[in-house]
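Many introductory courses stop at the sequence. We go one step further.
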Amino acid sequence: MSLRVAVLGPVRAWTGSSEADLGSPQQRLVLAALALAQGRTLSRAQLADVLWGAAEPPRSAVGVIRTHVSRLRAVLGHASVVSAGDGYALGPAATDVADFDAHAADGRLREALDLWQGEALAGLPGEYAAGRRVWLAERRTTVLESLLEDEVGRGRHAECLAELTALRAEHPLRERLTGLLMRALHAAGRRSEAAGVYADTRRLLDERLGVEPSRALSETYREIVAADPVRAPEARRPVPAQLPAAITDFTGRAALVEELTRALRPGAALAISALSGLGGIGKTALAVHVAHRVRADFPDGQLFTDLRGAGPDPADPAEVLAAFVRALGVEEVPDGPAERSALFRSLLAERRVLLLLDNAADAAQLGPLLPGAASCAVLTTSRVRPTGLAGARQFALDVLDPGEALDLLTAIVGRDRVEAEREAAQRLVTACGRLPLAVRIAAARLAARPSWTVSLLVERLADERRRLAELRVGDLALESVFALSYDQISPAQARAFRLLALPDGPDLSAPAATCLIGPEAEERCEELVDLGLAESPAPGRYRMHDLLRVFGRARLGEREQAEALARLLDFHLATLRNVHRAIRDGESAQELAEITATGHPMADDTAGRAWLAQEAPGLASVLAQAAAAHDAHAESGARADVPADVLGEVAASGARVEVLAEVASLLSSQMDGVVQASLAIPAVRGVAAVAGRRDDPAACVALAALGHLLRDNGEMDEAASHLRAALDLARRHDRADVFIDVGNTLGLDAYYARDHDRASELLRESIAVSRREGIASDLATASLNLALVHIETGDVAEAVRLSRDALDLGGDPILRTFALYTLARALGDAPEAAARYAECVALSRENTLGFRTAAALFRLAELHLAADPAQAATLAEQSLAESESLENPHIRGDALAILGQALVALGQPGRGRACLEEAAAVFTDLGVLPKADDVRTVLADLG
């Protein structure tokens, strides 16, 4: 049985998968010493030194050592400790310290550091443990320095600054670390701080050791001082992580998995591995499994796309490139395919990124998507071998071997059930041709029907002539697998399967499926998911693999198809009407009002906007299908032009101003990287102009949208003008939704300008309207904004009350983080405040709310400043790292101010002053003069 010993943390040991009880600290100490000897024999005298140090060992020392060894053998196995001469050695065993050395030697520094589980030899007494602890900690710090040096060298200085600052506080005389911190600060555009670090180190070296900085550190300082001023740091490069979820029941292909893993390691040339095979052979499952295994080798991200090569509409490489370069942080995407491909290769030139290009059509489709950097790797899948893909290693997938197919069946059905009918299970996977998808479908049927025996399903597959003939015929092989399940499901399920194959969209919601299939749609769809004939990417949403969709459509009759498409079209148009009625308080555009179908009801405008944002691709595809179908119902052509404006072709048409205004609002509220403010502003400006000329009530919607977009684009003065106009129109036309939204925005602007009276007036009015309308989320938001005003004016009791009331209203995670943050601010230095800030940080990180994370971190740093300046410095650096990608100078200024004060308290006035001076400059540039004055007061006190 295998033995593993861990010493990089509490001393622990495992035999197989079971952890052993190692007994007393002295017994653990003996095991730790043997593990650290790494196979060498330790004499009894050496073990006595381990146990008793400089003290005189007792007369019973030899007996005590023998007792410890005997007890270790009892719990770890007799071979765990080997007698050799007058001493002992650790038997065959794996140790984390050996793994640490191996990983470090191979350059896998992060993996080496991940082995540490706290302080080495934690809790063990004595001089030996203390000495080994220091020795191991030094080795860890050296590896950590190397890792951070590599990270800074690769441009990840922003991510490293918090850790470097904390390490520098712990090891102020470690010159390699000091030089690394200086280079990271310089790369981040904080050159004055870097110079301050050098001044602090030079003073400490003189005071404590009476020496000057090393030549290497002095040279680093001279290079920084002589360098041209560094521009403001660029936003942190995005690290896409687009791989689909790991496949938990993946089985088989062990040798191929290992070969692919090795083939994808970065080397001297771009690594390309191409998987090919017929549909259902398991290409995607294998590719995703391998990609997760090697993802640690690609720290700059993983890109994924389904190229739809097996379907009728392969993805356009130019569109895929546009999505990829956006994921890599580029906002302005070139128009031409060649320019996009060149830009993509440039972006990856110095990055380590893995590309998983699934379901490719051919080498021509893949060519423009290939990077040129050897540091990257590409894994492709396709039904047809992509000949002509230069440099690619080709892997043609075959069916599973009998054992692997049986393992796959067992993973889905359960071991007990398969072992009870092992011979029948073997016949079943043989009947499925050991094709992974066929095995999965058969297994899913059994898993969904616990009362069925394996033998019963084998009997249902008794027609070998038809089954085997179809399984062995090229592309028809997969169709036979689909037919196997289709022919055996109930008529109701078969009808649902055919109809679910109809839509072109990426997936179908449960309400849309109900209109298409009938009241039992969700039940039937869930049954199809259980049968492996459909997928559910999210609760209440359904889709089909492209080949299953082709299979299902081939079984749709013309009349069935035409009637189904008519139902689906009417559903989407009617729901679109309901969306606008919800947004416009019961009204909708005239064209949509004429739709008589029921559609999916919308509870409020929030639900309506969410539906439009999520369903727009499906809506567009349904309209395109209807327009192209000769047998679509008579009005499809007339109706197809209605949502063209709604879906984005915004034109200054007075007849559609209501719909256009709502689209303008959508563009401003659904940014999330999908619509760039600079691209949306001209369209929204045109809508606002049309609405304004007509004095249409929709003008307040368009003006509010324009104001928000301009704010996002940094055009604050013009934004404020449009928002004020929107507020006046919303008040005049009684548009509560617009009034609450704009009132909150302008109220916050007044708060930041310290016009507390104006802020209170706007926010109290927003609270009143929210309460009247019964909108809990808006009421909570306005209440929290007003609480901020009360914090500034000193009425903390009212601020606490408003914050707790808002927290009690619940809401989504974004609103809850705001409530936690505001409550913590209102509590000041009360003990509860730190806990609330910490809760806010955790929830914000969980929901990738960078701004709230950064704000809560600097507030936490502020709380720790007096009692624990080292912790305050670490938290402030973490806040700065979060703020790098936010382009929010307010947070940056606040974090720099706290960091500067913490560094001064830690005895690093040079760097501390540099931080404070930069904070004052940030606040001055923002026009936040009171904060700038506060920082200058701190600087003046330093003398």
